[in-house]
Amino acid sequence: MKYIIEAQNIKDDYKNILERAKFFKEKNIYPTLNKSCALFFEEPSTRTRLSFEKASRNLGCETYYIQGNFSSSVKGETLFDTFLSFKKIGIDVVIFRTSDIMFDYEALLELKLGLINAGDSTHEHPSQGLLDVFTLLEKTHTLKNQNILYVGDIYHSRVFRSGAYLFKLEGANIGVCGYPSFIPKDYPFMDKVFTNLDEAIEWAHHVIALRIQKERHKETYNLESYFDMYGITKERYNKIKGFLMHPGPVNRDIDIDGDLLYKEKSLIANQIENGVFVRMAMIEYVVG
């Protein structure tokens, strides 16, 4: 019962965020928040960082970017002390990406800062999960009983961990496909596990491709054979019933045939566009 209550509260919150993102996109009317936002990124980012920055500026926020490897964290400063400094300087919202999942989130909440997780190592990526749901709902209007297939490096994917949870709240079924070593053993939101991509595509309505996160692997992989087994080829693309997505960055001709990225079934460009509106709604929600 506790899980059901918590899940309903989360669903109410994220539904409000998605409705607000829809308003921003359709009406092109933005409030002026007069707040200050700091973007603190310890890991590389293009789409997430830039769309959060654009979102912040669209809302009339003073926006500051701090690159992690040029911050005092490289000198041994803790995340708490870094965020305390932000608070004392007068920052209202911190949008952060960290390479560490072992930090004391509860202690950060005590600082009374607005906090938005823009990706913590292999754990979560809430804004990507929200914009993936938003993007697919734009096209389908309901995800109830839809089969969503994640393909690739599921084990290291924070996108999967955030997205699968939200898709389940929408009533979707979640499938995963990849090398056996790419599949987490204990994640609760997997309804189907495949090692054969062609069989998985037969089951799926919509496909979300993920890249091999080479920076997190000790072993190396034959990328040509990986594409043959788990890449979205033209033949597999043609068999997809619904839509193809990818959170980026895309490794062309490894994750997906490069000629397919912006074809009719692909929502990759839509995901990038929608990132700004969803992240605007997140910032507005956090500052109340």
**Number of separate structural domains:** 2
- Could you please say which CATH topology of the largest domain applies here? Rossmann fold
Looking at the structure, what is the overall shape?
A: globular
Any guess at the CATH architecture of the largest domain?
A: 3-Layer(aba) Sandwich
Q: What's the arrangement of strands in the largest beta sheet?
A: 7-6-5-8-9
Number of strands: 9
CATH superfamily of the largest domain: Aspartate/ornithine carbamoyltransferase
Describe the overall structure.
This protein folds into two domains: 2-125 and 272-287, Rossmann fold; 126-267, Rossmann fold, CATH 3.40.50. With 288 residues, it is α/β, with parallel strands linked by helices. It contains ten helices and nine strands. Helix 5 packs across helix 10. Helices cover 42% and strands 15% of the residues.
List the helices and strands and how they pair.
Elements: H1 2-27, E1 36-41, H2 47-58, E2 62-67, H3 79-89, E3 93-98, H4 105-109, E4 114-120, H5 126-140, E5 147-151, H6 158-169, E6 173-177, E7 192-194, H7 197-203, E8 206-209, H8 223-230, H9 234-239, E9 244-245, H10 268-287
Parallel strand pairs: 1-2, 1-3, 3-4, 5-6, 5-8, 6-7, 8-9
Helix pairs in contact: 1-10, 2-10, 5-6, 5-10
Please supply descriptive tags for the structure shown above.
alpha/beta; about 290 residues; 2 domains; Rossmann fold; about 40% helix; about 15% strand; 4-stranded parallel beta sheet
